[in-house]
């Protein structure tokens, strides 16, 4: 059907046409009609009505925000303009506040080619190593950087932030401690306050006593299993903890040290002084402060503790041809296998930001980094000398980049700093703090003199530039860092650009093909949604700046919260958790605190269905709860009989249930209201895991269904890109009775916005700087657009299920054989008959140019496909055709045409090396590499990874020089 001529349309029809909705939703109206016909549905609303249980369908249109219902959804340009006006209410001061956050100079070559490049930001967590070698290499570089700077043996590929890394260090110290009866964790009294806040929150649920005192005092304390020190105190003092660490090691106390990446360039590594665990923020390696995040935390430990590490480790393994190849090691499926015994609940972490930090080190190399760190330190020496000359007293005699200056008239000085456009640290007793960074200029130092000494200070930078050094000689680094060639080759922009592109080309991202990952919602991350995150108005704010300077952020966060409240049917929203799993933890804490507030602290049992995501039991354990598994029936639904029994048995000890809706089996359970009622009846709360919100938005809400609290994965449903495994945001929505119990923050207090509870993240609003992505999405889709998106996501999944069901059995279905927004293909019968497994199909899909679906979750031996609404019918058909072609390849194995041990499936994926040299396989090279034709061919760079070899030989630093090209 041809469009009507523009002359015959009304103005509002013409305007509607420019709407973003049609850009976000893949299938056109005609394609939707064709798909509806193919699955035998009369219309989209009919389809939804027939799938979603009647008792949970919202009676009216989705009740989203006044702005959104009054006006049409905004076009990309209008939404950008509206957000720009909001952003303009943020005030861009120069923040010398420090406390773990500094301004940075993101190298433009990294900004443009990585942070703003969908080839990097739309990739998925590298579970399929054959399509992920580029970002795996960047992450391995991050680990190498961590190892070199910390002086330890094994490093992971990023945690969520420095404060949560500290909590992980404490939990790990307890795991590895040989002092089984010790229950105290000692914290030096000059760690950053937000770190202490998060550690305290975590210690409470674990039942640890946290002791805070001067570091030396630890030797006077008994029953301490672990210690947390900060190499450079929050006030700037450089500590030489060598002797103390040795004494603690004698007593078998596990020592963790928080450190700063830039400082470590010049300072002795804590590892070389005996520390067991070293961690910190990688923010100042090129990642903007962004009002608190996202930033990567680094984390390293001794080799003997490698099986106890939290988070992911990238390991060097080899592929089927014996070539070295990278993969996620050990921890990869840790949560899904070990559940509540997992080392941590971290799933989404900060991959994109870790990679920015890693490439910052590649770009600058060891001498560039030393120059940058040296300049920061020299400027600090000059500042210190000038202030002393001017008669001021510094609180400490050693420093790297931070000074604490004693002042009598603190308020006046802070005020004067503001008039210079500078923020100083304001929370110190009778002192102000200032931290310098790579953006600091001579003029800035002169301004600091004027602020502290008055305009007539008469100081000159050059006159003060003496050879002073406030780092104790013993604390200066002697060993070389970053000697690996990767850190010494790519210093010109041309080389750097090409290196980054060479990595990008190895990976399969959304700019190449659909990524049909069940439970992960790999939908469009639109350019207009991404643009605001690098606006300086959002990027440059320090998380602890005066609230008046963050007016734009607070307005944006307030609006987004309001919209999410309406979309979830809750009463309040907490924007602090910086991943879905952290949201689970925060939500469970709220439940725990609520029970405690009513004198029911005995409620500790958390019911979790057998099908739950691995983070659920891991989070429950972190929240100090005991997991009891509830059975699922043959259809994959929660077994109500078992639920009633387990809830009854728990009795007064029942805390809550964690359910995912629609279930991880991809169906809308008809009994969800009953599930909520049963749990409530026994005095429990309902935690509804919101990872599958893409099947609810605009159609139903967790609040309407009867749940008390949910996290949202903004990096799934609300368009924040996966970034290769992070960043993410996991805000929680709660009913009113839980609202007083969501996390607060000890450094930032905002009445009516933050509670007085302990924090779960370093920053009050988590990874605030990626929230504009979700804001833009909702603003451009509007209420109706969001409902349409959910509806089309469901249509797309049902279209795939219908077209594939004769080739692959669909494991679970609801009424009329329909699925929700994803479907599970059961490969077990195929494997039984033919020997071809879900793994073979996943790898063969690579030859066809696709990323595999989710493998063996929630059921072993299956593939879970989630197309999302963003994929057009053309792309769905291409995927379906590939899956059908693979099915006929399986048949050729089944009927003996190809041997079970030598066929295109078990040998997949094929690389360019397969088109040259010997060829002895019973199928052609053409079929091997071009099963879907040669146009737009994606080439994996390695053959299938050898998992067994990788598990046995854990090697997590850069490949040896002999193997480096
Ligand atoms: C993704 C997911 C989570 C965890 O979210 P992260 O952001 O990765 O921590 C939890 N539950 C379900 C069902 C999920 O799909």
UniProtKB/TrEMBL annotation:
Its cofactor is pyridoxal 5'-phosphate. GO terms for biological process: glycine decarboxylation via glycine cleavage system. Keywords: Oxidoreductase, Pyridoxal phosphate. GO terms for molecular function: glycine binding; glycine dehydrogenase (decarboxylating) activity; pyridoxal phosphate binding. It catalyses: N(6)-[(R)-lipoyl]-L-lysyl-[glycine-cleavage complex H protein] + glycine + H(+) = N(6)-[(R)-S(8)-aminomethyldihydrolipoyl]-L-lysyl-[glycine-cleavage complex H protein] + CO2. The modification N6-(pyridoxal phosphate)lysine is found at residue 716. Residues 22-452, 464-746 form the Glycine cleavage system P-protein N-terminal domain. Its EC number is 1.4.4.2. GO terms for cellular component: cytosol; glycine cleavage complex. CDD domains: GDC-P (cd00613). It holds the Pfam family GDC-P. Residues 789-910 form the Glycine dehydrogenase C-terminal domain. It comes from the Bacteria. The glycine cleavage system is composed of four proteins: P, T, L and H. The glycine cleavage system catalyzes the degradation of glycine. The P protein binds the alpha-amino group of glycine through its pyridoxal phosphate cofactor; CO(2) is released and the remaining methylamine moiety is then transferred to the lipoamide cofactor of the H protein. Belongs to the GcvP family. This is Glycine dehydrogenase (decarboxylating).
């Amino acid at each position: 059907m041809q469009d009507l001529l523009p002359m015959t349309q009304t103005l509002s029809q013409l305007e509607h046409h420019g709407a973003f909705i049609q850009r976000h939703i893949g299938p056109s109206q005609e394609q939707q009609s064709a798909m509806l016909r193919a699955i035998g549905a009369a219309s989209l609303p009919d389809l939804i009505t027939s799938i979603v249980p009647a008792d949970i369908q919202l009676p009216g249109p989705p009740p989203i925000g006044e702005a959104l219902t009054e006006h049409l959804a905004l076009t990309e340009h209008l939404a950008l303009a509206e957000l720009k006006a909001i952003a303009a209410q943020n005030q861009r001061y120069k923040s010398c506040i420090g406390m773990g956050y500094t301004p940075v100079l993101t190298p433009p070559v990294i900004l443009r080619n990585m942070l703003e490049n969908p080839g990097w930001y739309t990739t998925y967590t590298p579970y399929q190593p054959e399509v992920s070698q580029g970002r795996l290499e960047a992450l391995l570089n991050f680990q190498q950087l961590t190892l070199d700077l910390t002086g330890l043996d094994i490093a992971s590929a990023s945690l969520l932030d420095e404060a949560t890394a500290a909590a992980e260090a404490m939990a790990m110290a307890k795991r590895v401690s040989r002092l089984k009866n010790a229950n105290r964790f000692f914290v030096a009294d000059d760690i950053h306050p937000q770190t202490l806040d998060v550690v305290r929150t975590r210690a409470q649920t674990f039942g640890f006593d946290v002791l805070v005192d001067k570091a030396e005092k630890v030797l006077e304390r008994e029953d301490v299993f672990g210690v947390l020190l900060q190499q450079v105190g929050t006030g700037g003092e450089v500590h030489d903890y060598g002797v103390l660490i040795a004494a603690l090691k004698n007593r078998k106390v596990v020592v963790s040290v928080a450190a700063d990446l830039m400082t470590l360039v010049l300072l002795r590594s804590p590892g070389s002084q005996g520390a067991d665990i070293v961690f910190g923020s990688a923010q100042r390696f090129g990642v903007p402060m962004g009002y608190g995040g996202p930033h990567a935390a680094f984390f390293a430990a001794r080799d003997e503790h490698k099986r106890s590490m939290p988070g992911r480790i990238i390991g060097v393994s080899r592929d089927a041809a014996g070539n070295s190849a990278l993969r996620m090691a050990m921890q990869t499926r840790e949560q899904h296998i070990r559940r509540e015994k997992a080392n941590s609940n971290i799933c989404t972490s900060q991959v994109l930001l870790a990679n920015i930090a890693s490439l910052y080190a590649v770009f600058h190399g060891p001498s560039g980094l030393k120059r940058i760190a040296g300049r920061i330190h020299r400027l600090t020496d000059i500042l210190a000398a000038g202030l002393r000359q001017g008669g001021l007293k510094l609180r400490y005699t050693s420093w790297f980049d931070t000074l604490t200056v004693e002042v009598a008239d603190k308020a006046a000085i802070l005020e004067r700093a503001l008039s210079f456009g500078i923020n100083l640290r304001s929370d110190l007793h009778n002192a102000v703090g200032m931290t310098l960074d790579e953006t600091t200029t001579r003029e800035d130092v002169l301004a600091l003199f004027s602020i502290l000494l008055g305009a007539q200070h008469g100081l000159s930078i050059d006159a003060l530039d003496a050879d002073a050094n406030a780092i104790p000689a013993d604390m200066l680094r002697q060993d070389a860092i970053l000697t690996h060639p990767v850190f010494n080759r790519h210093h010109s922009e041309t080389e750097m650009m090409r290196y980054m592109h060479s990595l990008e080309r190895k990976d399969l991202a959304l700019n190449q093909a659909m990524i049909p990952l069940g439970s992960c919602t790999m939908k469009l991350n639109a350019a207009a949604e991404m643009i605001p995150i690098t606006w300086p108005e959002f990027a440059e704010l320090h998380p602890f700046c005066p609230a008046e300077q963050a007016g734009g952020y607070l307005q944006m966060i307030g609006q987004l919260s309001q919209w999410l409240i309406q979309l979830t049917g809750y009463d309040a929203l907490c924007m602090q958790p910086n991943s879905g799993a952290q949201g689970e933890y925060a939500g469970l804490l709220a439940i725990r605190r609520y029970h405690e507030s009513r004198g029911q602290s005995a409620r500790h049992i958390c019911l979790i269905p057998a099908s739950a995501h691995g983070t659920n039991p891991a989070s429950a354990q972190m929240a100090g709860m005991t997991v009891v598994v509830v059975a699922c029936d043959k259809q994959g639904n929660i077994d109500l009989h078992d639920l009633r029994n387990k809830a009854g048995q728990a009795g007064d000890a029942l805390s809550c249930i964690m359910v995912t809706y629609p279930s991880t089996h991809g169906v809308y359970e008809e009994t969800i209201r009953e599930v909520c009622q049963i749990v409530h009846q026994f005095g429990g709360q309902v935690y509804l895991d919101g990872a599958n919100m893409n099947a609810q938005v605009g159609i139903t809400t967790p609040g309407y269904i009867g749940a008390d609290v949910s996290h949202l994965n903004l990096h799934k449903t609300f368009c924040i890109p996966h970034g290769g495994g992070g960043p993410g945001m996991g805000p929680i929505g709660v009913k009113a009775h839980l609202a007083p119990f969501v996390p607060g923050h000890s450094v930032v207090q905002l009445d009516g916005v933050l509670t007085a509870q302990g924090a779960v993240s370093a920053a009050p609003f988590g990874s605030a700087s990626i929230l504009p992505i979700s804001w833009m999405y909702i603003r451009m889709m509007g209420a109706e657009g969001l409902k349409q998106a959910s509806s089309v996501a469901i249509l797309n999944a049902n279209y795939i299920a219908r077209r594939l069901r004769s080739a692959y059995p669909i494991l679970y279905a609801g009424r009329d054989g329909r699925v929700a927004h994803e479907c599970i293909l059961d490969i077990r019968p195929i494997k039984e008959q033919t020997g071809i497994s879900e793994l073979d199909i996943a790898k063969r899909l690579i030859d066809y140019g696709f990323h595999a679906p989710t493998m063996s979750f929630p059921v072993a031996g299956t593939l879970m496909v989630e197309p999302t609404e963003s994929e057009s019918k053309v792309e769905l058909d291409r995927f379906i055709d590939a899956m059908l072609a693979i099915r006929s390849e399986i048949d050729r194995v089944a009927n003996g045409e190809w041997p079970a041990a030598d066929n295109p499936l078990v040998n997949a994926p094929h690389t360019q090396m397969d088109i040259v040299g010997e060829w002895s396989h019973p199928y052609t090279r053409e079929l091997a590499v071009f099963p879907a034709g040669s146009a737009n061919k994606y080439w994996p760079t390695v053959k299938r990874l050898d998992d067994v070899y990788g598990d046995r030989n854990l090697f997590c630093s850069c490949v040896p020089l002999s193997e480096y090209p």
